[in-house]
Amino acid sequence: MKKGITSIIVGSALFATFAMAQTTTLTTATPTSVSLNASSSISCIASAVNTRESAISSAFSTYSTAVSTALSTRASSLANAWNETNSKTRNSDIKTAWSTYNSAVKAARLSHNTLVKADWASFVSARKSCKVPSAGESPSNDNL
Questions:
Q1: CB 42 within 8 A of CB 36
Q2: CB-based contact 24:122 (threshold 8 Å)
Q3: How far apart are the C-alpha atoms of 30 and 119, rounded to whole Å?
Q4: Distance (Å, rounded) from C-alpha 126 to C-alpha 134?
Q5: What is the rounded distance in angstroms from the CA atom of residue 69 to the CA atom of residue 63?
Q6: Cα end-to-end span (Å), the chain
Q7: Closest CA to 139 of 105, 111, 115, 109
Q8: pLDDT, tens digit, for every residue of 32-45?
Q9: How far apart are CA 144 and CA 5, in angstroms?
Q10: Exposed/middle/buried for 7, CB within 10 Å: 0-12, 13-18, 19+?
């Protein structure tokens, strides 16, 4: 028993000594600063950002309208389905209402993502023509 306790104490002491000997240096990522040479570069990239943001806002508005329409259609279809007295017809109508809704929302999401991807591609092209390096803006930060 003493041998087991002694082994635990010695092992703990060795572990503590090893752990104390280890040093860890933590570094934090700092945002990339963008240095621009001319005011024309600033106005060029500002215009490109404005164009991108307006296009993304428009894409979201289109998406929102499509989902809102899908929700209204679903509500109407479900109301009609639940007024059906025949259970087979009612169940089929309910299934169709949900299927139609899911398809419409999926199509709206795919369309939105395609538009936003194109908006970002246009922005990257404009940024390059402005001769401005990336400032860490990424389409991966902009998702639905």
A1: yes
A2: no
A3: 27
A4: 11
A5: 10
A6: 62
A7: 115
A8: 455 555 677 889 99
A9: 58
A10: exposed
